[in-house]
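Lab meeting prep.
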Amino acid sequence: MMNLACNLCDASIMGNEASMYALLKELRDDNPVAYVDHPDFEPFWAITRYEDIKAISQNNAEFINNPRTVLIQREFEQALLSKFGTRNGLETLIHMDDPKHRKLRNVTRNWFKPGSIEGLSTNVETIAEQYVDKMQSMGGECDFVRDIALLYPLRVIMAIIGVAPEEEGMMLKLTQELFGGQDPTQSRGENVDDGLNVLMDFFAYFTAIVEDRKQNPGDDLASVLANALVDGEPMEQLDQISYFIIAATAGHDTTSATVGGGMKALLEHPDQLEKLRGNPSLAKQAAREMIRWTSPVRHMMRTTTKDVVLQGQTIRAGESLCLWYPAANRDERAIDNPDVFDIERDNRQQMAFGFGGHMCLGQHLAILEIERFFQILLPRLSHIEMVSEPEWVQANFVGGLKSMPVRYAFNPK
């Protein structure tokens, strides 16, 4: 008989804000290190308290990312292992351990440092203004998620990578099939081969880009990745294509989820909406609170290299742990009034970007995009409201809103 923690594997539960947080709270309070033995997944331990997740994230020697980085159904995991020689199918930064992780992280580290990101501010503002203008042109009603939140961060990261605007639709579709593979409206299909084909389409697309940038290098991120050297040698193809995939997908999907979820939070907390509208200088703090509040990356996994004891539970070497970031970000043991949305909160301790050596490389870009968008949008709006209940993507890895129809009015020019 499956226990309560097995519901973590249910995308319909984890793909809904209310049911997800209710489940995580119950586990955090009553069973913070819960053993999950689900028939469709390899067993793992679910970790739901802030301090445990922080301690594990800081100890990259005893808790490693390989060989199991995210929850994947057993059948698909075996198919990936057979086709790619790895249970993850990819070899991105989130799948690596040191020293390889450190070496490959350094390939793009300068691109994502705070100073470099600040240099992108003008371009980000321009793109944000384009999407605010688009929203105004739509006549007072739109689906804020589908028409705005999904597309704005996509344009930003595609411009940085060097992908043509006309190919963004294809990239969005592939991303939704990759991260929303458990959602019946986003999945390419229910068969293992369908999931493998999504990865193969990514590989084919970015292999062509690598070959082009080797011959015609430019000043974009694609050229950096295509011509990168690691230990004096060209980057291995799997590492290279995986780097492109994580940059192109995580680089927009998580930010899109925060823009959409952040707007929902503001609409549900009108006092915070008015506070931010009246004081745009709070936008960076608000962006951090939106990221904590939405926690788009639901989990990452680690594998123990030695026996450890957590909350009285003995976890044996070689066993897997799943770190649930939304649970950490609502843990009242570490965060004051965690169920209150407060745009003036000091969010230095929030864990939506992870923690330690694997902390999200693109966090400063994400904050800038969210900050600039709401700084531009809110002063121009005179009114905005939800028209109907939002819909959520059914997913337990990266999740957020699928749809949120809104009605609004802009101030006269």
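Slide two material, second protein:
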Amino acid sequence: MHNLEEQEALRKTILSRLKRIEGQVRGVQKMIESGKECEDILVQVRAVRSALNAASGLILRRYLSRCQEEALLAEGGDSRRVLEKFIQVMANFMDH
């Protein structure tokens, strides 16, 4: 039960961060529309990128704690296949 509560709290945190990021992106759009200085815009873009990186870390954490458990069940306990899948997910994530 404790794990389910942690998962729900983590899900809410991720969604909250993504909504905040969405607002930041809208702010950048408004800055561009109103002709703000490029330096100021780039500072905000860097902030958005940093926020996305932090959210990505939380999503990866959730993947590790939740999805890996589900994958083990789906693969009949074959931890090698689950590990290979995780490595593939991480490799795809890091390529972008």
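Talking points for slide two:
The mean pLDDT is 86.
The two ends are 35 Å apart (CA to CA).
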